[in-house]
Amino acid sequence: MRTIRARPASRALSGISAAIRVVILAALAAAVLIPLYWAITSSFMTKPEFVSVPTHWWPQKVDTSWYQRLFTEQHFPRYYLNSIIVSVVVALSVVFFSALTGFAVSTKYSFAGKNAFFGFILATMLLPFELIMIPLYIMMRTFGLLNTYAAIIIPGLLNAFGVFLLRQAINDIPNDFLDAGRIDGAHEVTLFARIVIPMAMPVMAALLIFTFVGMWNSYYWPLVVINSEPKRTLTLAVVFMQGFFAVDYPIILGSAVLGSVPIMLVFAFSQRFFIRSMTLSGLKG
Amino acid sequence: MTPRHRLFRRPWDKWGLLFLLPGVVFFAAIFVYPTIRTIGVSFTDFNLLQPPKFTGLANYATLFTQGIFLDSAKVTGIYVLVIGVLNYVLPFAVAIALMATRRFVGVGRAIYFLPVILPWVVVSTIWRIFYIAPGPISGVLGLVGIHYATNPLTQPSTALLGIMIIAMWKTFGFYVVLFLTGLYAIPETYYEVAEMDGASGAQRFRYVTFPLMRSTSLFIATVNFIGAIKEFDPFQVITAGGPARATYAATLFIYETGFKFLRMGRAAAASLLLCGAIILVTVVQFRIFRPARD
Asked: With an 8 Å Cβ cutoff, are B12 and A109 in contact?
């Protein structure tokens, strides 16, 4: 209902400007989609076809040999497994501990230092990872965790964003629900399990997807703590392929496509969810 | 405020503290302790193999006298300013255009958001090859009569611009979504009143949209600037800092100083300076966008 009726004299003009607007929006959409489309189709081309000028936008003959090589000569199944393990563990951990911590710092409890601690957690969102990276690396080395899943996972087990999100969601749960439980003699742990978690479930689901994607995409910290081939995550593998295959661009593009397929699927099935969790992040409090 | 005589006001409050325990332990171990340690390491000469040697402010002095760090800070500074401004103006304009073209909001948002969720590594890999000349860009630009013959990433003068274009491509959809959320929150009636008063499109933006988007703007400007300062993946993956250090960002300097040349002390000192820059930027932005008192 926002559309504001233009006065008759300017109606033709606004028609033109609306057309220009649509053209620009469509051009932007094309600019977003073309590189992705090109990367996918190119990964199905032979090398001679890929380098031919002018650029081919559809393979003459669909060639899947690059993908076969990535799955057999290279160890992409293994990299998938690695990425799935670290992303799933981190996502589950972040969701659970964010709910627990978010409950503790929510308006449902009051104790000295609560708000100060929450403020401190929020401040960590600002800080660059570099601030803690070197000591974290030294810690992982000291505990003999370099080149393990644990090294990738541990710093991701909980984060400020999750606590912030769940605190908001838990604040919105009416106090009466918890008080009714307390009058019935329910334990606080029971309240957490039976009231808080179910009622925060939509936000927890959004956080789960958000964290999974974030962990799947992460590169910097795995790069620091992993240098053994069998523990490589997909992002590390994609970058490694660039060095390994140098100018065999179609196979490198194929590795990039493989690196994003699971994310594309997650996005396709949960786009609304995902966008909501992103927008919840800042504008609601 | 009620005076607090005891730690807990109600019997169940002690459970709150108990629930907080894992969080406290985590943040102490993963943030507080390492931060303190980084500060300590920054005053030492430390290569991981021998015990750290205290050198006072030598690391900081080196950073400011050797040109490499200052050059990398300049690369980051230019990148942050350009991305910070463009990634505010473009998504704001796109969000307003989408609002005026309601039919496209859903599909537009989904398409623009697509690169946001892709791994930076994947985006970097695709674009590094997409830029080759002659290549796909020559084909597309050729349609409108533009001759594309040089890959910008290969020239020191244009490499950073090349990365900025990729960064815009990757991130602008995120801010479009945030702006859309803010725009949807503005009550319809404000625009109706403005129109009855005869306000033009520009005036409606100046006196209705813009002031009411203050808190959204603050949030977006902060996230955008800080995100740009922290950027690491594209610089490392697309150009590895080259050519001729034209894209050698501060984060890349820290990574290589620490993990390639094993100068942990100097890398720690640079990290703290980076952190200081982020705090400074945040404080400045809170001053610029602070809600007007009325």
From this structure: yes
